[in-house]
Design brief:
Blueprint lengths: L1 H8 L6 H25 L14 H5 L6 H5 L6 H11 L12 H13 L7 H29 L2 H12 L13 H17 L2 H15 L8 H12 L3 H7 L1 H10 L2 H17 L4 H8 L2 E3 L4 H11 L8 H20 L6 H14 L2 E3 L8 H6 L2 H13 L3 H19 L8
Antiparallel strand pairs: 1-2
Helix pairs in contact: 2-7, 2-8, 2-21, 5-6, 6-7, 7-8, 7-9, 8-20, 9-10, 9-11, 10-13, 10-14, 11-18, 16-17, 17-20
Length: 413
């Protein structure tokens, strides 16, 4: 871990504030997880259906077994990413999980497989990498926020992101930390705007699109910077032809990863769009944007939601409305490319829905990576002192509840 941080520091300046936010928030997760495993491990129904966990987790389902604590976060989607990293796409349904994250897990987990049995090496790789990428994300996020606003907003923003109620997914081996770091790096390169930076930004956008399906919208942010840089076009064509040609050529990198993935699906499954069909088979259907939001609200006001789904529905609704509210209220505080990135990612994420009783299932997790909304939340913190009491209470308590629920196999997002 120390070696990785030293290597990272050569490309990303390490600031103390995001470093402290990372350490304190990750310690918060660990401190809560330990007693949960101590109390729950070995009990009936822990962690959940044996068919939905790896046999390694079941083998160490004992509070006196140290591995029970180390494997505490091997749940839900992380199970599928580790399985793909270890065994490839052996089921059509698993193609819904895009390939970059499992490939990254495999790259660092393969050496560990020489020393660790089964798929444990890939699980440890996923946990280590997700935390490293989140650490990098906090550093990049601090850097961008300070540039757009000021150091006070930047400090507030990194703590809000570190203690966001769904921040567990930045450390539990999901795609969120990799996707966020790629999006942030893309904006860093676009802000610099050098000749080679266009290629690096397009590379990051392409990798983000190969990490999760919503990553395709990053192309709009890149195009926004291109237009801003070379407008009016007629004038720049007379003086900057080579630079325009270089920039346009770099855009080729953005769809390249998805094209290769679709080619792989065609060659192996005879269906280049299999990942879309797989998403539908998982119960997630395309809908008109905001349909899921209104459905969730309707279920709540008509008291249609079962009691055991009430917690998830309320939180899903609150943390779906929050970024929409912030974007509307502080729309003009963001540069055009950031607005476009936020709006397109928000609409794309809200263009799918799951059926009753939880139509907004996973949506807060998808929206959490829209980092400009966290910047706007920091602005709200600055200008609206009343919100302090709610954030001080709601964020840590909800995060603690989610940390408890995840290891015992209950759905979080």
């Amino acid at each position: 871990m120390r070696v990785c941080l030293l290597l990272m520091s050569k490309w990303i300046p390490i600031r103390n504030e995001p470093k402290q936010a990372f350490l304190v928030s990750r310690a918060f997760l660990i401190v809560i997880t330990i007693p949960v495993i101590t109390i729950a491990a070995g009990k009936h129904g822990f962690p959940f259906n044996p068919r939905l966990v790896s046999h390694e987790v079941l083998q160490h389902n004992n509070p006196f077994d140290a591995m029970a604590y180390l494997l505490a976060w091997w749940r839900w989607d992380n199970l599928f990413y580790v399985r793909i990293a270890a065994h490839g796409y052996d089921q059509s349904g698993s193609t819904v999980f895009f390939p970059l994250w499992p490939a990254t897990i495999w790259l660092f987990g393969r050496p560990l497989a020489l020393f660790l049995p089964g798929d444990i090496s890939y699980y440890f790789s996923s946990i280590l990498l997700s935390n490293l990428f989140f650490f990098a994300s906090l550093q990049l996020f601090y850097q961008l926020t300070q540039k757009l606003f000021d150091i006070t907003i930047a400090k507030t923003a990194v703590w809000l992101l570190a203690f966001f109620p769904y921040t567990v997914f930045f450390s539990f081996g999901y795609t969120e930390s990799l996707f966020l770091s790629l999006c942030l790096a893309m904006f860093v390169f676009l802000e610099r705007g050098g000749k080679f930076d266009w290629w690096l930004a397009s590379l990051c956008a392409g990798l983000a699109a190969t990490t999760r399906v919503t990553g395709v919208v990053t192309i709009f942010a890149v195009l926004a910077y291109v237009v801003q840089r070379f407008w009016p076009l007629a004038q720049h064509l007379r003086t900057n032809k080579l630079e325009i040609f270089n920039t346009l050529c770099s855009l080729i990198l953005i769809p390249l990863g998805v094209i290769f993935y679709m080619l792989y699906l065609y060659l192996n499954w005879d269906n280049p769009l299999l990942f879309l069909h797989a998403a539908i088979s998982w119960g997630r259907h395309p809908v008109f944007p905001l349909t899921a939001l209104f459905s969730a609200l309707w279920y709540l006001v008509t008291f249609s939601v079962p009691l055991d789904s009430l917690y998830n529905n309320l939180l899903d609704l609150c943390f779906t409305v929050l970024p929409i509210f912030l974007l509307i209220k502080y729309w003009h505080h963001l540069p055009f490319a950031y607005r476009l990135f936020t709006l397109t990612l928000l609409l794309y994420s809200l263009s799918t829905a799951v059926g009753f009783p939880n139509p907004l299932m996973s949506i807060p997790r998808y929206l959490m990576v829209i980092f400009p909304c966290i910047m706007l939340l920091a602005l709200e913190w600055k200008y609206n002192l009343v919100c302090h009491r709610y954030i001080y209470i709601l964020f840590p308590l909800t995060l603690a509840a989610n940390v408890v629920l995840f290891p015992i196999g209950r759905w979080v997002a």
